[in-house]
Amino acid sequence: MSHAVTEAPAKPVPAKGKPALSEGKRAERRLGLLLCAPAAIVMLAVTGYPIAYSIWLSLQRYDLRFPDERQFVGFENYVAVLSNSYWWTAFGTTMFITVVSVAIELVLGMALALIMHRTLVGRGLVRTVTLIPYGIVTVVAAFSWFYAWTPETGYLANALAGESAPLTEQWPSLWIIILAEVWKTTPFMALLLMAGLALVPDDLLKAASMDGANAWQRFTKVMVPVMKPAILVALLFRTLDAFRVFDNIFVLTNGANDTASVSMQTYNNLIKGLNLGIGSAMAVLIFITVALIAFIFIKVFGTAAPGSDQGGKR
Amino acid sequence: MAKPPTWSRRGRPPARAAGLLGATVVGAGLLTACGTEGGMKINVYYAPEDNFQTVVDNCNEDANGRYEIVYNKLPRDADGQREQMVRRLAAGDDTMDVLGLDVTWVPEFAEAGWVEEWTGANKAEAERDVLPGPLETATWNGKLYAAPKNTNVQLLWYDERITPEPPRTWDQMMQMSRDLQERGEPHEILFTGAQYEGLVVVYNSIVESAGGRILSEDGQSVVMDEGAVRALEILKEVTTSGLTDPSLTNMEEDQVRLAMQEGRGAFELNWPFVYASYASEKADDLEHFKWAPYPGVGSNGDGRTTIGGYDLAVSSASQHKPEAFEAALCLRSAEHQKFSALNDGVPPTIESVYTDPRPLDPSKPADPENNPSMATEYPMKDTILEALKNAAVRPLTPAYQNLSTVMSKVLSPPSDIDPQGTAEQLREQLTDALDSKGVIP
């Protein structure tokens, strides 16, 4: 479990200045490549082709309603999107939701992970209960939040919102979206962190305890440094996921009052607007942003990223 | 995985199964279905309408086994309806035959080449006796692309105990509302102010009433003339002077209806469905619930109200076009329009239906409870007809969806409108939307 998780983003270490390979080694390598080929080809077909096609579409003026006016326009669509205030509003909203929800999830997830890790009785039950929200379909969960926050019908709205309709105002809506996201994905975070906790040797904690470290010191000076690779992976996964948030917003506000995420806006332009050019440009921009986030995580915090040598376990 | 039963269901059902089928048959539609087992199916995709299946069954009887119309219900919300059809049409789905299009979608579907042009006898039949406004919504570039099925217009609703004489113009309405406010009586002017199509409808009605234009005649360019700016001023004035409901920006048709029924408003701008609701929920006060034409602007005479409704089109990918045209014509025939008007409250597009004195069942006398006629169900039918003859069509353009999204966004909230600035903003963003260059919010 812990291995699968911590090693997930590990990349094959590029071979630098290796000695010439023997005949047998080369044959072995060829066989290895051949065995990998089917998987690589399938990956290319299902991910490479759509990505390339979106990039190609994003360079064209292509609106399904004006099929005759299809033409190559270079980067015009990108200029249109990047110079548009709606796009940047959505971008800001998405960033806000991402940062806040991931931060809250990290804290809550860590607490849950510690609880799950330390539970002595009914361990299976505790873990199952914790994971239930993650097992519920997002749209279904989003609808229950939606009704809960609808005046008259919803218990939360009746209890907390009084006369107002929180889902019709920007800030209350954003917090409700974050709440729904956090509720839904904290268990996932906890699961990843629990895997990291398993890496912390008990002896280390006992030794620290002998040396007089209190619980908080043991947590910050021993557990967190050892778990760092797992924490980073958990953060990376959740950040990438959170940035593409769609279903919760779609159900809760449908993007009204400046609560649309970039994914929602892409959907609106592609599916509602039928504008394949602009929509694909947005999709590519999201792809680039996600790649950038991953890059920053790996390069900036990279020293301790799992898979890179010295820092981690192994 | 159970193979044998699957096989027997796909193939010719054994005698026992056939008997069971026969026993469960209840309606005429199913009977015909049995008659044309494996025969031609005409798939109709149309919004949910409670009694539309009866119309379909009737048309199936008329078809006499040559084909069977199947009513496929689209989602309840307009966006959901459009998305489903558009996605499938763009992919060339040939199992859709007749499409129920909202009046604002016809240019879009026609321009994209998804719906067939109506010609010859079919065209003549689809146009016969149809009111000009609804007909205009089915036309694009001078060609007919759909047969108007039903229409709709907004009227001004008021309580004669509060205002015995309804206002004729927006200025009068605001003045009366102010006077009522001073006297501490219900004074609110209620209309759809939420950020959605309803706000666009209100704005379009005021623009047209002021003699203005948003787009040019051919839908190719943005005009936003003086009338359009005047309409912005009116929207601004009415929403900043305390005459509207506090939750204006959250109000869609139904909230507007409820606010009026709860006695919060003096004036309500809404579709005729509010009358039926009023009749069933506040029957005691119904006699005081009155209607008038949409308020006008300045000295431009009566207001012009925006048309709603549905048109029936034939998909270009359909495998059975001649039958699809025939089926569409049957589904919106005068007789069936009357049936739908009386049972489902959707106003007809054919003029003679309004003056048809015969009740639903002509063999029995008219009776509001069991055998309604146009006169009993639509006491406001003359006003509707008058409004339809002078109606405002929403801008006709294939890019209407973009246009509407941008407009509702820029106009929200109406109290923040700065007439000149907002007009400039609309000019810019609508031009982009028309060229499908702009980003939809």
Largest sheet of chain B: 5 strands, mixed
Structural class of chain B: alpha/beta
Compute the CA-based radius of gyration of chain B. Answer: 24 Å
CATH superfamily of the domain at 89-275 in chain A: MetI-like
Assembly annotation: heterodimer
Distance between the termini of chain B: 47 Å
- What is the share of helical residues of chain A? over 70%
CATH class of the largest domain in chain B: Alpha Beta
The low-pLDDT segments of chain A are 1-11, 308-314
The main pleated sheet of chain A reads as: 2 strands, antiparallel
The average pLDDT value of chain B, as a whole number, equals 86
Keywords (chain A): Membrane, Transmembrane, Transmembrane helix, Transport
Protein name (chain A): ABC transporter permease
InterPro entries (chain A): MetI-like, MetI-like_sf, Sugar_ABC_transporter
Biased composition (Low complexity) (chain A): 8-20
How would you characterize this protein structure?
The complex is a heterodimer of chains A (314) and B (441). With 314 residues, chain A is mainly α. Chain A is built from 13 helices and two strands. Chain A has a domain of 187 residues: Orthogonal Bundle (MetI-like fold). Chain A has a two-stranded antiparallel sheet. In chain A, helix 4 crosses helix 8, helix 8 packs across helix 10 and helix 9 crosses helix 10. The longest helix of chain A has 36 residues. The N terminus and C terminus of chain A are likely disordered. Chain B has 441 residues and is of the alpha/beta class. Helix content of chain B is 45%, strand content 12%. In chain B, a hairpin with a 2-residue loop joins strand 4 and strand 5. The radius of gyration of chain B is 24 Å and the shape is globular. The chains are: A mainly alpha (314), B alpha/beta (441). At the A-B interface, helix 3 and helix 12 of A face helix 5 and helix 19 of B.
